[in-house]
Specification:
By secondary structure, this protein is α+β, with helices and mostly antiparallel strands. Helices cover about 50% and strands about 10% of the residues. The chain contains twelve helices and nine strands. It has a four-stranded antiparallel β-sheet. The two termini are about 20 Å apart. The relative contact order is 0.14.
Length: about 325
Amino acid sequence: MSAKNQLDLLVNNFQNQRPLRAGSLIITIYGDAIVPRGGTVWLGSLMKLLEPVGISQRLIRTSVFRLVQESWLQTEKVGRCSYYSLTGPGLRRFEQAFQHVYSLSTREWNGSWCLVFLNQLDPEKRQKVREELEWLSFGSMAPGIMEHPRFHRNELLPLLQEWGAQEDTIVMQTQPLEQKSPRALRRQVRESWNLDELAARYRGFLEQFRPLWRELQSGDPLTPQECFTVRTLLIHEYRKILLRDPRLPDELLPGDWEGRGAKQLCRNLYKLIHARAEQWLDQTLENASGPLPGPNESFYRRFGGLRAETTDLQPELEMSK
């Protein structure tokens, strides 16, 4: 099957998702493509980017309106044109959601846990904070107690203040353990997170994108517009899984953990298509001043460096199998 046919399958899979979360895809596009170029874009440009995945202009307008209502986006009108950018809170939420997408390094775990006690919150606020913490991949240790192995108390306190919950939430940081007791912790991890479901989602990601990777490796090219569509769907699907992945230390994960292969595949495919995708963005993105500038320097640090070509991808491909 050709690379174009593989792309058609990816688009079809996205269109068949229910509910079709166009707003989430728009946030992916902002994080992956628009923020590195200044962060503000004309609504018409956004429509051009979303057209290949079959999202109607009406749904785009509705989704953008909701993102404004939810304080993700803010709008500025110049004449009859509308330009959208991330709000301050939206940018912070974006950074939390995307900070691990393009990173290859995994900080060594020192045995410390961040624990959050929600019992003193009223029921409505407790549910809201719980949902926000789950969005940050916190697990449930017990009713009213959330946990994370890599979040730090100091990172969480400003977020609790933003949610209006700091005064009634107890946050503790455990001391690093000299003896980490992997067996007991592995049991606790399985009670706090559904690792089987997470592994299944990673397997689904590999099954979706590995065939396209193979076709592109064989020399079957895609146009710049098609490369951008692949890149958007790649990061969107990978980001959705990472939102539920607490990035547990290796000693608490199975030896054949599918997340490792998914990260390798995502990196390799992104590095293969990013340059042609940027050509399409050069032609398409506009703000009130005209075409958007090229991506900033931090963009080229993604996945260990986009300017540096990967010289030996086949071993990494084997790791993704």
